[in-house]
Design a protein that fits this description.
Blueprint (H helix, E strand, L loop, with lengths): L3 E2 H7 L5 H9 L3 E3 L2 E2 L5 E2 L6 E3 L2 E2 L3 H5 L4 E6 L30 E2 L8 E7 L2 H9 L5 E13 L3 H6 L1 E3 L2 E3 L3 E5 L6 E10 L6 H7 L4 E9 L2 E2 L8 E3 L2 H5 L6
Parallel strand pairs: 9-15
Antiparallel strand pairs: 1-4, 2-3, 2-5, 5-6, 7-9, 7-17, 8-9, 10-14, 10-15, 11-12, 13-14, 15-16
C-alpha cells in the first residue's frame, strides 16, 4: 500500500479531522511504531503501527475506502460526544450495528437538550470540508421559547454574540405564526453547520428562555419522516446535496 500522511490516515480512520490530527501530533499524543510522530510524517497503512494516546488505530474500512455518512435523528438527552456519568448514551449509540466498527466524526453537534438531525461521517475529508466552511452547510433550527419574541429583536440574533471567542449568530430568522404585534414564541433560525451547538447560548445571552431546539433540516435533507433514533446512509449525490439548501 502507498504511504499516506499521518494526519490523513487518522482522519480517514475516523479518529478526528486532519486539522485536529495535526494538533494531536504536535502535542505528542500520536506515536508510530513506538516513537513520537512528527508533523508531515508518512506511514504505510497495514505496515506501520499507529497509536493515539496509547490506543492502537487500525485502518479499518474507512481507510480502505468504504466511507459512510449517516443522518441520524437524535433525541433529547443524548450526548454529541463522549459519555459522562449522568448521560451515558451518545449519538454513536444510534449508529446501525452493521457500521459499529466504523469510527465516526460528528460534523456539527447539537447540545444535550436539543434534538433532530445530526450528521455523522467516517470520511475525514468530508468532515474537514464541512468544518472549514468554504462550502457552507445550512441547518434549519426550530426554536420554541417560553415567552413571545418580538420581530423587532431579530436584529440581535443576526448580529450575534461572542461565546468563547467565537461569534455565534443566525443567518436568517423567521418569526412563525406571529400575533398582531409581530411576536411569537416559535422561530425558525438558519445557521451554518457547526454553529447549532451555540444557538441556545445565543438566546440565553440576549435574555430569552429556550423551551426546545430541534434541527429540522441539513442541506436539502429534512427530518420529516425519519423516526426518533432512526438513521439513514447518504449516497454520493445526497452528500453533495448537503451543500445545497432549498
Amino acid at each position: 500500500m502507498e504511504p499516506v500522511r499521518l494526519q490523513k490516515y487518522l482522519a480517514d480512520a475516523g479518529v478526528c479531522s486532519r486539522r485536529a490530527a495535526e494538533a494531536l501530533i504536535e502535542a505528542g499524543e500520536v506515536s508510530v511504531n513506538g516513537k513520537a510522530a512528527e508533523l508531515g510524517q508518512k506511514i504505510v497503512p497495514g505496515a506501520d503501527r499507529v497509536n493515539v494516546r496509547g490506543k492502537f488505530i487500525a485502518g479499518g474500512p474507512a481507510v480502505s475506502g468504504a466511507k459512510i455518512t449517516l443522518l441520524v435523528h437524535k433525541p433529547k438527552g443524548v450526548v454529541c460526544g463522549t459519555p459522562d456519568g449522568r448521560h451515558p448514551e451518545t449519538v454513536y449509540d444510534l449508529v446501525p450495528k452493521q457500521y459499529a466498527r466504523q469510527r465516526f466524526l460528528i460534523a456539527g453537534r447539537l447540545d444535550l437538550e436539543a434534538e433532530g438531525l445530526v450528521l455523522l461521517t467516517s470520511d475525514g475529508a468530508l468532515a474537514d470540508r464541512i468544518a472549514r466552511g468554504a462550502d457552507p452547510v445550512l441547518r434549519r433550527m426550530r426554536v420554541s421559547l417560553r415567552e413571545s419574541f418580538p420581530r423587532s429583536r431579530v436584529a440581535q440574533l443576526l448580529k450575534g454574540v461572542r461565546i468563547e471567542d467565537e461569534l455565534v449568530a443566525a443567518e436568517q430568522v423567521f418569526v412563525l405564526h406571529p400575533d398582531a404585534s409581530g411576536s411569537s414564541s416559535e422561530l425558525e433560525v438558519h445557521v451554518s453547520h457547526g454553529r447549532g451547538r451555540g444557538l441556545r447560548e445565543l438566546f440565553t445571552t440576549i435574555g430569552c428562555d429556550v423551551k426546545r431546539i430541534q434541527c429540522t433540516q441539513i442541506g436539502v435533507h429534512k427530518l420529516s419522516g425519519m423516526p426518533l433514533r432512526g438513521s439513514r446512509v447518504l449516497d454520493t449525490d445526497e452528500i453533495e446535496k448537503l451543500f445545497r439548501a432549498e
